[in-house]
């Protein structure tokens, strides 16, 4: 492409004399001999060997580098090292010096790290070109005689650099450039007559490659484009710009005019050429000296192939790209700054000129963000659409897919004349996987409208590419035109739902659909059954039931091979409850299905068995055949009576009640022990014999059944009289109701007469008479017993008592003095008594029984205050009179007191009245006598009264030997005085007619009533807790 045909834009602004003359002042009258830039510094060397370092603020640092002029200088881009070649002596070899611009000596100048001389021959040869790699491990120097010296090693650290002469004398070297990749290293060489390349990857095995033997360039007219792919080496000739790569020649750009300088900045190629004919440019440069040479500076965008800047400037010494821009140094020592416009300004300029293609290329080259790039595509598409280029517009809109809303584009091409463009866009949507179901439907409709059925099939039945459309929508559209194609598409892509739906609804092939389901995996087959089970069970119930048996017990796809034992154990089993609803209108199949499940395993949920019972009853109820009805009845009973079947008895009872299944109702009521409900159900049926059987069977567990039957007999005029007699007999025998209650119940009947209860009343009267006689006998017996007790108490109070005990009741040894005697005929050694005594006024042997009696009395004392319990029982009692009599018998309404002060008073009385006592010829001068009389009453079973008195006598005596005393002690006077001094209260029973237990009377003995007058040897040892 000719340079003149490239489009021109102005993407740079020129700012002149940015250093404000600082460089001119630093240089003075000297000439600029070499320039370089890098690492944030611009380096200028002059003819007197002075090096000028310029920072970003255009402050100049000057130091003397050589004694004479400097010919070459190179500043590393990323390292603070500066390499210069100059002369300290005229006529000597070129001197190479390496500087560290960040380290300074005492004078503030950069430190020279290393210096050495270089020459390809023994004669001094001026150096014409210098190149250093970015890693500072390679350095090449070209000479005017065509020789090249390659240095290996770190130029700052290694003391001695290994050098090799790559080329002998030939055309002068005008340019050098390193191209370093991860695997290979190359050196591009430009001479005045040819272009060369050296493969320097392997040391001492450098290989020379001649790229162009006919085209060379002047000094400064070659550059390496290091920011674009393949790093082309560019060479400027008067007629064009030639590019070379490691593989050979590259593209060529026709740019006429003699070139002075070539430089690379970012992605731009900067060309400085002499101005032979005055070239008009967007930027006008005025000059006071018209005789000075004029140069044209042109900035090319090589990748996008357009000119971004062009201007005429006075003679240029150097182009210096640094600090994100590039600068030019003119011959009058002024530094001009070229500022690149920002991307938005560039795009705005291009949008005004409708140069959308250039906008896109620029945005891509500068890695513009995707959203803004999509906006450029959209504007470009709108522009093309407006000028009528619909094909070009759709191409741009396709590039916006994924960011731009598809409806924005679709609305523009809905007209029938643009349907081809719309198909193209919709196809692109599907290829990129962003199409929705609506887009798929629209595309398929477009194919149908344009009669492009071959494309339609190609679109939906493709095999060589991924699915890029909504299959559901595609099948839905194809189903309208050709169900066969839709079926094929569903089968191909494994859309089981669509395939079965088309088979059932369009082709009515129910068996084929079921066979297809049998081939699916468990989860898929389960889903299909839940969706289409109602249709299948309606048309092919037998086959579908067989399939469900397999699905719920041992499922595996029908098209799989035989399974081994491990896989058979891991087969899937569906929950039968999920499919019961499918058989709501087909109870026979459901019963078949559930029976199979129960035979397979008994570990099912309760609802399974409940459902089976329900549909058994349904079939039993609807059946008109007696044989079949009996068969189902037996099946229901077997199910109910089975111990392995876990059904809900309450729900089963409800089901049996709904169908009035008598056998099941009676069985379940009996199992639930609902005997009253059984009676109620039998009474409602009017089967009186079954009612009596029920009462006989469950009457012992639920006696109220007889009472319920009596009430029913009173209200039912058809109740048999013989059955009523049996009911009354049982009520009388078990005493379930009082006669008055029976008469009251029977009086409510309008059909019964006195004849019906004559025998019952006669039996009741006889029983009452017999009871009265028995109670009168008990009354006489209780009176006699009471008189006997009173007589015994009186005898204790008024008659003398003789103590004849000869052994100690505790240790069972011979009784010795001092001893202690009690009125209960127990005697103790004094030391035994002191060891076992718990209460000094109580006999140790009788104390436990006395405490027990007192405890019962206290318990009655506490219980009698529980008025709330009494009233609540009274409200619930059927016979209130009996309850009140029972409380009277317990002495609840009488206050019971235990006289605890009587013992002390009695002891005081005996101490004052008892005189000397002689026992076994021993004179007792001092003694102590204490007695205590207690009355107790005990009630057990209904009401039992027991009065006991315990009179204790404690005798303590001082023994004097050889003196005798009588063995009988008269205590009548002492007892009388004690009773007169104390208001002794005898607690006697208030109800002598209650049951009496003689075994609990401590004063009663069948053998003799004079128990206390017997010898101590005749004493019953069972009453002594100390006896062994």
Write the layout of secondary structure elements.
Layout: E1 7-8, E2 12-15, H1 22-27, E3 32-38, E4 41-46, E5 50-54, E6 60-64, E7 70-75, E8 81-86, E9 95-104, E10 110-117, E11 127-132, E12 138-143, E13 148-152, E14 162-167, E15 173-180, E16 185-191, E17 195-199, E18 207-212, E19 222-224, E20 233-236, E21 241-245, E22 248-253, E23 259-265, E24 268-274, E25 294-301, E26 306-314, E27 316-322, E28 325-330, E29 335-340, H2 343-352, H3 356-365, H4 370-386, H5 390-398, H6 406-410, H7 419-431, H8 437-449, H9 453-460, H10 471-481, H11 483-492, H12 496-505, H13 510-518, H14 522-539, H15 541-553, H16 565-569, H17 587-600, H18 606-622, H19 626-641, H20 649-659, H21 662-671, H22 675-685, H23 688-698, H24 704-715, H25 721-734, H26 739-747, H27 758-798, E30 801-802, E31 819-821, E32 827-829, H28 830-836, H29 847-863, H30 867-876, H31 880-889, H32 902-913, E33 917-919, E34 922-930, E35 954-960, E36 968-969, H33 972-981
Parallel strand pairs: 1-26
Antiparallel strand pairs: 2-29, 3-4, 4-5, 5-6, 7-8, 8-9, 9-10, 11-12, 12-13, 13-14, 15-16, 16-17, 17-18, 19-20, 20-21, 21-22, 23-24, 24-25, 25-26, 27-28, 28-29, 30-36, 31-32, 33-34, 34-35
Helix pairs in contact: 2-3, 3-4, 4-5, 5-7, 7-8, 8-10, 10-11, 11-12, 12-13, 12-14, 13-14, 14-15, 15-17, 17-18, 18-19, 18-20, 19-21, 20-21, 21-22, 22-23, 22-24, 24-25, 24-26, 25-27, 30-31, 32-33
């Amino acid at each position: 492409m000719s340079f003149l045909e490239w489009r021109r834009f102005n993407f740079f602004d020129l700012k002149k004399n940015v250093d404000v003359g600082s460089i001119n002042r630093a240089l003075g009258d000297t000439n600029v001999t070499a320039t370089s830039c890098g690492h944030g510094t611009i380096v200028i060397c002059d003819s007197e060997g002075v090096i000028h370092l310029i920072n970003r603020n255009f402050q100049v640092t000057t130091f003397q580098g050589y004694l004479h002029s400097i010919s070459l200088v190179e500043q590393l881009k990323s390292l603070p090292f500066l390499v210069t070649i100059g002369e300290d002596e005229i006529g000597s070899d070129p001197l190479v010096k390496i500087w560290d611009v960040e380290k300074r000596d005492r004078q503030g100048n950069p430190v020279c790290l290393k210096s050495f001389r270089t020459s390809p021959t023994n004669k001094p040869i001026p150096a014409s070109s210098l190149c250093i790699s970015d890693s500072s491990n390679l350095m090449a120097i070209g000479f005017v005689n065509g020789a090249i010296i390659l240095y290996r090693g770190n130029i700052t650290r290694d003391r001695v650099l290994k050098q090799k002469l790559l080329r002998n004398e030939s055309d002068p070297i005008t340019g050098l450039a390193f191209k370093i990749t991860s695997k290979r290293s190359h050196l591009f060489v430009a001479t005045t007559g040819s272009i060369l390349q050296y493969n320097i990857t392997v040391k001492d095995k450098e290989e020379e490659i001649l790229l162009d033997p006919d085209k060379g360039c002047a000094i400064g007219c070659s550059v390496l484009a290091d920011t674009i792919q393949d790093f082309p080496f560019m060479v400027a000739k008067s007629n064009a710009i030639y590019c070379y790569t490691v593989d050979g020649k590259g593209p060529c750009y026709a740019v006429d005019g003699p070139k002075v300088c070539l430089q690379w900045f970012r992605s731009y190629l900067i060309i400085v050429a002499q101005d032979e004919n005055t070239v008009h440019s967007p930027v006008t440069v005025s000059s006071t000296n018209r005789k000075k040479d004029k140069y044209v500076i042109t900035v090319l965008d090589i990748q996008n192939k357009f000119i971004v800047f062009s201007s005429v400037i006075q003679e240029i010494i150097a182009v210096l790209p640094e600090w994100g821009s590039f600068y030019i140094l003119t011959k009058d020592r002024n530094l001009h700054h070229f500022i690149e416009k920002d991307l938005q300004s560039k795009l705005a300029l291009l949008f005004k000129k409708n140069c959308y293609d250039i906008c896109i290329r620029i945005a891509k080259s500068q890695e513009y963000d995707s959203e803004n790039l999509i906006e450029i595509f959209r504007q470009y598409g709108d522009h093309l659409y407006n000028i009528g280029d619909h094909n070009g517009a759709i191409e741009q809109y396709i590039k916006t897919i994924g960011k731009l809303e598809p409806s924005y584009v679709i609305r523009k091409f809905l007209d029938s004349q643009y349907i081809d463009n719309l198909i193209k866009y919709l196809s692109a949507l599907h290829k990129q996987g962003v199409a929705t179901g609506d887009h798929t439907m629209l595309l398929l409709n477009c194919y149908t409208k344009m009669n492009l059925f071959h494309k339609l099939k190609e679109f939906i039945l493709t095999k060589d590419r991924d699915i890029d459309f909504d299959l559901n929508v595609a099948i839905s559209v194809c189903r309208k035109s050709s169900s066969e194609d839709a079926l094929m598409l569903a089968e191909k892509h494994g859309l089981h739902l669509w395939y079965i739906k088309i088979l059932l609804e369009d082709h009515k092939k129910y068996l084929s659909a079921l066979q297809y389901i049998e081939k699916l995996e468990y989860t898929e087959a389960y889903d299909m059954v839940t969706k289409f089970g109602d249709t299948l069970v309606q048309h092919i119930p037998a086959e579908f039931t067989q399939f469900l048996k397999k699905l719920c017990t041992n499922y595996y796809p029908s098209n799989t091979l035989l399974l081994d034992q491990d896989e058979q154990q891991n087969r899937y089993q569906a929950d039968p409850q999920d499919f019961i609803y499918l058989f709501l209108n087909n109870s026979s199949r459901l019963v078949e299905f559930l029976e199979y499940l129960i035979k397979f395993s008994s570990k099912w949920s309760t609802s399974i068995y409940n459902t089976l019972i329900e549909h058994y009853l349904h079939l039993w109820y609807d059946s008109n055949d007696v044989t079949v009805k009996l068969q189902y009845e037996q099946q229901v009973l077997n199910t109910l009576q089975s111990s392995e079947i876990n059904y809900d008895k309450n729900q089963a009872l409800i089901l049996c009640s709904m169908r009035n299944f008598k056998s099941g109702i009676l069985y379940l009521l009996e199992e639930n022990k609902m005997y009253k409900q059984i009676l109620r159900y039998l009474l409602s049926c009017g089967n009186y014999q079954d009612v009596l059987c029920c009462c006989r069977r469950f009457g012992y567990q639920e006696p109220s059944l007889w009472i319920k039957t009596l009430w029913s007999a009173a209200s039912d005029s058809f109740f048999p009289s013989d059955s009523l007699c049996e009911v009354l007999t049982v009520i009388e025998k078990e005493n379930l109701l009082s006669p008055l209650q029976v008469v009251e119940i029977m009086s409510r009947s309008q059909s019964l007469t006195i004849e019906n209860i004559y025998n019952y009343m006669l039996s009741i009267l006889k029983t009452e008479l017999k009871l009265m006689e028995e109670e009168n006998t008990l009354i006489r017996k209780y009176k006699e017993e009471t008189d006997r007790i009173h007589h015994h108490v009186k005898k204790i109070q008024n008659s003398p008592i003789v103590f004849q005990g000869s052994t100690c009741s505790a240790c069972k040894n011979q009784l010795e003095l001092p001893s202690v005697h009690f009125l209960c005929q127990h005697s103790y050694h004094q030391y035994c008594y002191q060891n076992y005594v718990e209460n000094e006024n109580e006999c140790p042997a009788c104390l436990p029984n006395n405490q027990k009696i007192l405890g019962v009395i206290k318990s009655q004392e506490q219980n009698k205050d529980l008025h709330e319990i009494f009233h609540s029982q009274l409200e619930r009692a059927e016979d209130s009179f009996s309850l009140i009599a029972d409380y009277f018998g317990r002495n609840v309404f009488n206050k019971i007191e235990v006289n605890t002060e009587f013992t002390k008073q009695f002891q005081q009385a005996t101490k004052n009245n008892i005189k000397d006592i002689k026992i076994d010829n021993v004179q007792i001068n001092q003694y102590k006598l204490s007695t205590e009389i207690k009355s107790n009453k005990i009630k057990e079973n209904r009401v039992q009264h027991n009065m006991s008195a315990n009179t204790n006598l404690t005798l303590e005596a001082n023994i004097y030997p050889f003196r005798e005393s009588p063995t009988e002690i008269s205590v009548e006077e002492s007892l009388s005085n004690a009773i007169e001094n104390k208001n002794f209260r005898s607690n006697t029973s208030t109800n002598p007619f209650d049951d009496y237990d003689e075994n609990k009377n401590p004063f009663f003995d069948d053998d003799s009533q004079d128990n206390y007058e017997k010898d101590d040897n005749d004493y019953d040892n069972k009453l002594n807790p100390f006896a062994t």
